[in-house]
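Q: What does the predicted 3D structure of Alpha-glucan phosphorylase look like?
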Amino acid sequence: MNILGKVTVLPKLPAAIGRLSELAYNLYWSWEPRACSLYRDLNPDIWETYGHNPVRTLLEVGSEDMDRAATDPEFVRRYGEVMAEFDAYMGKQDTWASRHAADLKPVAYFSMEYALHESLPIYSGGLGVLAGDHCKSASDLGLPFTPVGLLFHDGYFRQTLGRDGWQEEKYDRLDLTTLPIRPIRTPEHDELRISLEIGGRTVTARVWQLNVGRIRMLLLDTDVPENHPDDRLLTSRLYGGDQEMRLKQYMLLGIGGVRALRAAGAPAEVWHMNEGHAGLLNLERIRERVEQGLDFRTAHELTAGSTLFTTHTPVPAGNDAFSWDLMDRYLGSWPAQLHTTREHLYSLARSEAMEDHGPAFNMTVFSLRMSRMANGVSKLHGQVSRDMWKHLYPGLYPEEVPIGHVTNGAHNLSFTSQRMRDLLSTVMPEDWTERLHEPEIWQNVEQLSGAQLAGVQREMKAEMIAFVRHHQREMLLRNGAGAAELAYTDTLLSPDVLTIGFARRFATYKRATLLLRDRERLSRIVNHPERPVQFVFAGKAHPADNPGKALIQEIYRVSQLPEFRGKIVILENYDMHVARRLVQGVDVWMNNPRRPLEASGTSGMKASFNGSPNFSVLDGWWVEGHLEGNANGWPIGEEREYADQAVQDDADAFSLYQTLEQTIVPLYYGERGGEADSWAGVVRSAIESVSARFSMQRQVIDYVQCYYLPLSARRNLLVPGGGQRARELAEWKAWIANQWPQVSVAASHHLPATAEPGEQVQITAQVNPGRIAAEELRAEVVLRRGHRVERVPMQRREDGEYAATVALERSGMYEVGVRLYPYLPDLSHDFELGLVKWA
Ligand SMILES: *Cc1c(COP(=O)(O)O)cnc(C)c1O
């Protein structure tokens, strides 16, 4: 066959519903179930067959379906309502950002993956969901915001389970004409292209535009005819290749991403790297400045001064490091382009403490050094990250490492069922969907009766069970099951039974099989004659993660045992659709990672939006979200660390069974003290306590206030006059670094071995400043008591000595020290230079 080319015939929509095609190209529908239902109702079979894709649905439905909808007054009325709301949303001028963040500079956001909807499979898990949700709330809040990513033609894999429960991976080639994306075009109407050098070849990328509400996402795609066949595969699979492929993809995302922004005319002044994958964007931004005539140091200062880095995982595999050999092959020309040396550039990405196999370019280290602000994704993860990276900040206590935190959130509307939204609307203020982050409005949930909540939850559970049965049936059909086995799917799960959900990536630290540790006990719980419990599992393992796949298989096998059949189910192909079904349909959401490896987790938040309490290890967000007295859910295990994993697993499993049997089950079945409303109390509290605090809206507002606005201000400080202030800072830092070896500090004190509370101690220090001016040095006394670090500035006296009087206010053991560091008012924080000398 000789195919000349492809042509897509666009649907001709009847005028009465004519704007459905416009709406299909805006992901607005992904968080408005009523918008989706318009496409579904054109033809439900097509809608299901093509994975809930509005663009595809419009291409597939026949004119009879269109005409029927266009002449159905009810459909046209719903259409009118949805379009009116869409227009109001798109046209809104009075947004949160216009009121609260007028000084915000345009933000560029880089992420390797985005989970916006199941029909656009360019995500693997939590990181992608977080990025997708961040974009949605940035749109809701009206931020000037442009996300950048890659368009993976084979997406992430579709998971199937074979007859033996072993995961298989299928990559479906995306048909781009059926996606809600359009190529960006030049004024001459050509497709926009950018190019960059990768491994000695020029690689070209097409830039697609994806509308997410009010914002425009840019997606790069190298599958264009002018590229070498190997380079066309760069945007084939997410996390699919080896180290080399990864590095090439990071170059494309970082370097290509900056070029795409520029070429598309998207303004960008504040830069947010969502994980270290995007770290190489700094190379291109420095190169741009060097090309304008700035030196490397000044360019680095400018670039870092407007950049935020978010780290997402303490798991080593999540922190890529590339050998210098590999770097030389791909980035060999960059030091010269940046007017610096290979040694200097690579030193910015080096962490000798973490190297097992020779010198490496660590993306996390590089990203930390290339940004003046950094954060983890929950309070605990902030702490874990400071500890993990403290060796990069010698002279500081872990508590002082400049990595803060913003606790993750989830995009409420994308995951809350329409039924729950309808119910909430009966008690919430009219504009509640714009005020999701305000805790006060959620107090209205108290007005909902137990019966109302139970009613919605019963319906959602019934829908989920129908979905599970259908899903399992499809799997069995594909695996060649017989009639009896197929018929059996109609009896899977019971709507009257307490249902617990567990779904996430099957990374081993998430311990998916913890529940199975004591099968006899589990069997008693599941098969209790009056108060049974059933479980639904789902999740993908990374294709290269055989231990993760073995966990899936183990759950599958257990689910086939006579005592668990129909009561423990594992669904294949966990994606956003399965996620929505589960978080909306189960009674309790379970999570049992090995603390403290879950940086945040977000699926539990989504469950709580729908009134499903969490039953979870006190890790990630749940440490913060869990209320005293288990009012909104329950902990698994204790808030502590273990030296031995087996001991930890045993302790957590024991706690899991114990709480389930003694607390959750009796409460659900209403047997505790005859309090009929006690379960409803937990449900209300789950919604009320989680919806605002863990809304993506709250998260994005935190980012704006803690990072985007300060970086906007910093940019205003550094950029004017051709980077005047940045140059001064850079020169000053270089000079100080040079002088620093000559500087010394010695302290004298009369520290008593014991002291009374409130006792004062006089401490003096003798400083040899070398050639550094006195006002550019700061000496301080540092008191550390437990995890609290207190800093007391020392005054410079006439005679050149430094002195301070410190009061030991509270009883306990103090570590007392004196240290010296260089100081200038315009630093982003006191230890920006990384130079600290202790007496
Ligand atoms: C929310 C979500 C995740 C992340 O959930 P965790 O709690 O972080 O495991 C992963 N995958 C999908 C499809 C999701 O919707």
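A (community wiki): The structure tokens above were generated from the sequence. The pocket of pyridoxal-5'-phosphate is lined by residues 125-126, 129, 504, 574-576, 579, 601-604, 606 (CB under 6 Å). The chain has a mean pLDDT of 96.
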